[in-house]
C-alpha cells in the first residue's frame, strides 16, 4: 500500500500540472529570498558601516565597498541554504492544487475533496516549515549520541512529516478531529510512509519537490486506508 502510493506520487512529479505548481513555488521562493537578501544588505549598510567608520575613522573609502561585497557573498551562503526550507513553506500554499490534480486524474469517479481554507493552508505551511526545522534540530542533537546518528534524522522526520501530510490529505474529506483519529488508527502505516518522505527529503535538489511528493503520496494513502476501512465496515 505504501509503495503503491509512493510510486503513484512519483509518477506524477514531472507531469505538466505538477511542474506548473513547482515552478510557481520555486519562483515565489526565489523572489522572497532575493528580497530578503537585499533587505538584510541594506540594513547592514544603514547600521553597520556608519558604526564601523565611527569605530575606525581612518578606513579608506574603498574599504566600505569591499566590505559590502564580502557581506553580500557571506549573505548568499545562508540564503542558498534556506532555499529548501523556504520552498517547503511556499509549497504549503499550493498543496490543495496538488491534491486536486491527483484526485481528478487518479480517482475521477470519487467525490472531490474540499480545499482547506486559505488561512488554514497558511497555518499548515508554517507548521510544515516548523516541523522540518524542529525535526532537523532534534536530529542534529541526536547525532551526538553514538549508535543513533543518521537513523535519528529519518525517524524524527518520518514521524513528523507522516503525521502532517496524512492529516492534510484526510482533512480534505473529514473534520480535523476525525482526520487525527484516522491517523492514530493507522499510526504504523503513516509512520512508514513518513519514512519514505524523509528519504526523499534527504536527497539534495530532489528535496525541493518534497512537499509536492508528500501531498500526492498521502492522498493515495488516505484513499487506500479509507477503502480498507469501508471494506471492513461492509
Automatic annotation (TrEMBL):
<feature type="transmembrane region" description="Helical">
    <location>
        <begin position="190"/>
        <end position="214"/>
    </location>
</feature>
<feature type="transmembrane region" description="Helical">
    <location>
        <begin position="62"/>
        <end position="95"/>
    </location>
</feature>
<feature type="transmembrane region" description="Helical">
    <location>
        <begin position="116"/>
        <end position="144"/>
    </location>
</feature>
<dbReference type="Pfam" id="PF07264">
    <property type="entry name" value="EI24"/>
</dbReference>
<dbReference type="InterPro" id="IPR059112">
    <property type="entry name" value="CysZ/EI24"/>
</dbReference>
<keyword id="KW-0472">Membrane</keyword>
<keyword id="KW-0812">Transmembrane</keyword>
<keyword id="KW-1133">Transmembrane helix</keyword>
<feature type="transmembrane region" description="Helical">
    <location>
        <begin position="150"/>
        <end position="169"/>
    </location>
</feature>
<feature type="transmembrane region" description="Helical">
    <location>
        <begin position="21"/>
        <end position="40"/>
    </location>
</feature>
<protein>
    <submittedName>
        <fullName>Sulfate transporter family protein</fullName>
    </submittedName>
</protein>
Amino acid at each position: 500500500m505504501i509503495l503503491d502510493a509512493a510510486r503513484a506520487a512519483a509518477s506524477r512529479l514531472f507531469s505538466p500540472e505538477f511542474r506548473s505548481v513547482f515552478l510557481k513555488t520555486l519562483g515565489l521562493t526565489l523572489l522572497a529570498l532575493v528580497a530578503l537578501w537585499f533587505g538584510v544588505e541594506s540594513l547592514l549598510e544603514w547600521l553597520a558601516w556608519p558604526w564601523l567608520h565611527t569605530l575606525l575613522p581612518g578606513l579608506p573609502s574603498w574599504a566600505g565597498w569591499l566590505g559590502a561585497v564580502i557581506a553580500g557573498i557571506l549573505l548568499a551562503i545562508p540564503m542558498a541554504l534556506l532555499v529548501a526550507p523556504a520552498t517547503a513553506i511556499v509549497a504549503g500554499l499550493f498543496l490543495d492544487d496538488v491534491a486536486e490534480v491527483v484526485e481528478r486524474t487518479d480517482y475521477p469517479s470519487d467525490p472531490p475533496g474540499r480545499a482547506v481554507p486559505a488561512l488554514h493552508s497558511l497555518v499548515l505551511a508554517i507548521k510544515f516549515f516548523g516541523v522540518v526545522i524542529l525535526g532537523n534540530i532534534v536530529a542534529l542533537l541526536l547525532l551526538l549520541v553514538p549508535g543513533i546518528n543518521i537513523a535519528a534524522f529519518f525517524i524524527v522526520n518520518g514521524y513528523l512529516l507522516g503525521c502532517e501530510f496524512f492529516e492534510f490529505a484526510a482533512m480534505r474529506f473529514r473534520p480535523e478531529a476525525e482526520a487525527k483519529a484516522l491517523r492514530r488508527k493507522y499510526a504504523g502505516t503513516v509512520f512508514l510512509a513518513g519514512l519514505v518522505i524523509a528519504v526523499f527529503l534527504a536527497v539534495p535538489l530532489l528535496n525541493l519537490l518534497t512537499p509536492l511528493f508528500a501531498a500526492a503520496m498521502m492522498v493515495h494513502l488516505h484513499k487506500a486506508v479509507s477503502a480498507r476501512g469501508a471494506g471492513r465496515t461492509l
